[in-house]
Each structure stands twice: as C-alpha cells, then as structure tokens.
Amino acid sequence: MSRAMDYTATEMMTVAAARALRNSDICFVGIGMPSAACNLARLTHAPELTLIYESGTIATRPDVLPLSIGDGELCDTALTTVSVPEMFRYWLQGGRFTVGFLGGAQIDRFANLNTTVIGTYDKPRTRLPGGGGAPEISSACGEIFIIMRQAPRSFVDKLDFVTSFGHGEGGDHRSRMGIATKGPTKLITDLAIFEPDPMSREMTVTAIHPGVTRDQIAANTGWPVCYAAKVDETAAPTGQELSVLRELHARTARAHGDAA
Amino acid sequence: MSRFLPLAEAVESTIRDGDTVAMEGFTHLIPFAAGHEVIRQRRRRLTLVRMTPDLIYDQLIGMGCADKLIFSWVGNPGVGSLHRFRDAYENGWPAPIAIEEHSHAAMANAYAAGAAALPFAVFRGYLGVDLPKVNPNIKHVVCPFTGERLAAVPAIRPDVAVIHALKADRAGNVLIEGIVGVQKEAVLAAKRSLVTVEEIVDDFGPRSANAVILPSWTVGAVACVPGGAHPSYAHGYYKRDNAYYKAWDAISRDRDAFLAWIKTNVLEQGPEAFAAHSARLNAAAE
User: Domain residue spans in chain B?
Assistant: First the structure.
C-alpha cells in the first residue's frame, strides 16, 4: 500500500470521524468540522443517517455545508423544521438522539470541553463563543463523538472552564451525577482516534493515523497519553471518500461566494 | 391591535433608553433593519437579549447602545469572534458591557416560560458544567413528584421583542415560515413588540395550516422593510449573505474600520437600503 500523503491531516480526521457514524444514527450536528464529517458519512456509507441541527431542521440533507447552523439550505432540504424551544425540549431533552457530534477549543483527558473562555471567566485572555447547545447535548444524547485538531494549547491538562461535561473526573463520575448516557465514546483528531478506557474513562489512543508517530501525539497533548493494549492504524481515506469530501467542500465554497 | 408605521416611527414609539430588548431570529430572519434604526436613534443603556448575538448585536454594542448582554452563543457563525463585543467586554470600548450567559436550552426554555407567563423555566440541564458557578440566575429546583433535581432559570419577559417576519396582511397579522426560531415566544413574552416584514399582502394565500402566525392583537408596531433581515435571510425571498458574514470579520476587528463602515452603511442610510441588498443577492443568484 502506498504511503504517499495524497491527502491532508484534516481530510484524514474528517474521514475517520465520518466513519464513526452508523446508518441508523440520529445525530445532533455541531457546526464546522462536525457538520463536514456528518455530511460526508451521509454521502458515503450512511445514506439513511438522520442529521438534525439545533435550528430545528430535522432529517436535513444539505447539498452544500452550511456556514451557520441555520442556513436556508438546511430548512429547504429538511423533512420538517420545528421551533428552537421544541428542538431543545421535545427532541434533545426528550432523548431522541443516538449521537451528538461536537467540537471544542479545549479538551482534557476525560473529554470535558471548554468553548467559553481562555483564562479566568471574569477577566478572560480570550473570550470564546460559549456553550450554545453543547452543555445539554453532552448529557442528553446517547453518546458523544468529538472532532478536534490536536495542539498543546487545545489538549490541556486542566480546562480553564468546563462548558460541557464529558467523563468529569473519570471513573463513574457521570453516573454519580445522575447522567445515564454514555458521554464521549470517540475523540477523532488529525493524529489519532481516542476512546475512553473502560474503567478510568480516560481518553485512550486506540488507532493512529497512517504516518503519525507517538512522539507527534505526545508533543501535541498536554497530558501523558495512554495507549490501548492494541493500537490499530487508521485506514487511509479511500479515493471515493476523498473525492466526495473534496466535491462537498468545492460546492460549499462556490455557494458561499468564496470564489467570487 | 398591531399598527402599521414607518420603521423610524416604529422604533421611536416602541423602544426606550434602558429597555430590555430581545431582537430574535435564529440565523434566519434577524431584524437588521430595525437594529440599524436603533443605532441611528442612538438608544442607550439597553439590556440586549438574544440566543446568538450575531452581527446585529456586534453592531449595536460597538455603537455603545447597550450596557448588558444576555446570550447563549456569542460568535460570528462559522467565521469566528464577534470583535466589537469582545472589545467592549475585554477592553471596555466604547463602553463596558456586563454579561449574563446561558446555554441554548436554558434560553429557549426561558422564552417559552415567558410566553406562558410563568416566572421561571425548568429543564434538565447544566449537568456537571461551570456556568452555574458564574451565573447566579442559574438555580435548581426539586421535582415535587419524582425528587429529580432540575435546572431553573428566570423567564425572559423583555420590555420589547423585535423580529423580522415574511408577511403581514392588511389586518396586521404576521406570518413566519422556515426556521422559526424563538420569535413567536419572544413576541408573546414581551410587553411591546416591533415586527418588520418583507411585504404587506391582501391575503396570505396558500400556506400550511400550521404556519406560524402571530395574530394582529398579539403584535405592536409593524413596519414594511423589504430586505430587512439582510445579511441574514428571508425564506423564499433571499438567501443568507455568507460572504458578508465573512467580510464582517475584517471590518469589525478594527475600531476605525468599524466606525467608517457604520457611518457609510447605517448612519448615512435609511431602511430602503435593505431592499437594494436583497435585490443584489437575488440578481447575483440568477
């Protein structure tokens, strides 16, 4: 098999994230990288995948990626569109999602996420957008997939702020909080795939993308990384996965006026 | 009963200095024309409420119209930061702004509670997260039937709700279709309301029996402002101007660039400028 890098690390990450979704999933889609992965899954191995955005668009099949969670494309191609209070009350709180797909600015070893502030809350060094739907997505969806690029400043030993709860302090922390859902079960990065250790719930590397070294992973992670007993090599993106993803991005760029 | 007014009179008669104002529209139908009129009329000390403050509140905050923001996601969707908000919050320019931060679920529930004339909203939320530590308006109640501990936030009961809708009929009823967001709840929760519309029609014509309609007697001022949601969009009229959202990043990073933009595009314009924006978008799409 050729080791030639004819795809980018971001493409590998998006493809690996898309593969995590099953055809039968009902997925609450975060904007940005989660949205790209979810639509790639729908356009490749999971054509019946149900995608729902917090704008109230249910079973939407956008031809181009939305820039916001409420682009008209999402409503035009949805099975139905409900109000935002209904989305959060009946659908999310009602427990009708098998998966929530999130990104974040900071993550810790237990997959708690911060999208609120870098620094202190009252005097932040960087004020980030905040939680949006994520605090309740994290507790109400059956499980959580997370897609994030790895870097020392984003994969941190301690979060500046807990915007959404992953495995807390690890172990049985979720069940002690009275949360019955699984929480983060997959963290897909540009270097590797992490899954929670069955006992400690620490996010543990279970697969490394082709050509990536453990040294690279260590250099981009702010805690000592644990590896599963058996670590696989992620299958490289197929030609079909890459062409579908690239066509999706090209259609999106044209639709958003990037080419103008 | 609602009353038809030119936009300037609608804002003049509906929004006062110091009011709590919710300009809603979840990505779709954001009432930019009304926001610009508020800037032109130099309203001050507003408490601005919006789930996603978006460019409309970046502009109002950058012009010093507000001293408090209640929100749940404060970014430029798909692009990055709201730089005018951050400059106000982090550096106090042009004036300091206080924040009250929630999650989307909390605000959506709080609007629904406001529309239902309840004092607070109850929901299953904020589990294990830090926001309740920094926002004293996030509390908990115990279910009297099951003993479950649930999150509680105050109902949102704004002085004024401002929305943009698709159509009003001659009787002043208002129609919204597409992504309907929290606009119905915001209007029903508010003491007063201002609705801008794309057009005024004799009859709404063919529509779903479940289309969102605010009857005339639930609405205050109605102003016809074609294109009034630009650069957000109006379902069936014009698309979201995503290129404008991307361009805003550079305009809003720099105080002088922002002020120059506001002078040219807001202070020296009137509501009729919005019709030109939507017409340009539709011409480009053909």
Answer: 3-102+157-285, 105-154
Chain B residues close to A134, C-beta within 8 Å: 103
What's the token pair of residue B52?
């996603």
For A81-103, letters b (16+ CB in 10 Å) and e give bbbbbbbbbebbbeebbbbbbbb
Whether residues A72 and B71 touch (CB distance < 8 A) is answered with no
Q: So where are chain A's domains?
A: 9-255
Burial of B148 (0-12, 13-18, 19+ CB in 10 A): exposed
Burial per residue of B21-34, b for 16 or more beta-carbon CB atoms within 10 angstroms, e otherwise:
bbbbbbbbbbbbbb
| Separation of alpha carbons B189 and B115, rounded Å | 4
Q: How far is CA A179 from CA A54, A84, A111, A200, in A?
A: 21, 23, 15, 17
CB distance A210 to A233 below 8 Å: yes
**Maximum CA pair distance of chain B?**
59
Instruction: Summarize pLDDT for B125-159 with one digit per residue, the tens.
Output: 999 999 999 999 999 999 999 999 999 999 999 99
In sequence order, the 6+-apart residues with CB closer than 8 A to the CB of A175 are none
Please list the ranges in chain A whose pLDDT falls under 70.
1-5, 258-260
pTM recorded for the entire structure: 0.96
3-state SS class at B36: helix
Both tokens of residue A207? 């697969």
Here the ipTM equals 0.96
The CATH class given to the B3-102+157-285 domain equals: alpha beta
Q: What is the CATH number of domain A9-255?
A: 3.40.1080.10
CB contact under 8 A, B104 and A83: no
**Cα separations in angstroms, A139 against A51, B140, B151:** 18, 17, 13
Residue of A nearest to B103 (CA): A132
Known catalytic membership, residue A54: yes
Q: Which residues contact B112 (CB under 8 A, 6 or more apart)?
A: A85, A89, B121, B182, B185
Q: How big, in percent rounded to 5, are the helix, strand and coil portions of chain A?
A: 25, 20, 50
Q: Does A70 touch chain B (CB under 8 A)?
A: yes
Nearest Cα to A116, choosing from B201, B131, B251, B30?
B131
Q: Token match 């493409």: residue?
A: A11
The list of chain B residues with pLDDT below 70 reads: none
pLDDT, tens only, A206-260 = 999 999 999 999 999 999 999 999 999 999 999 999 999 999 999 999 888 764 3
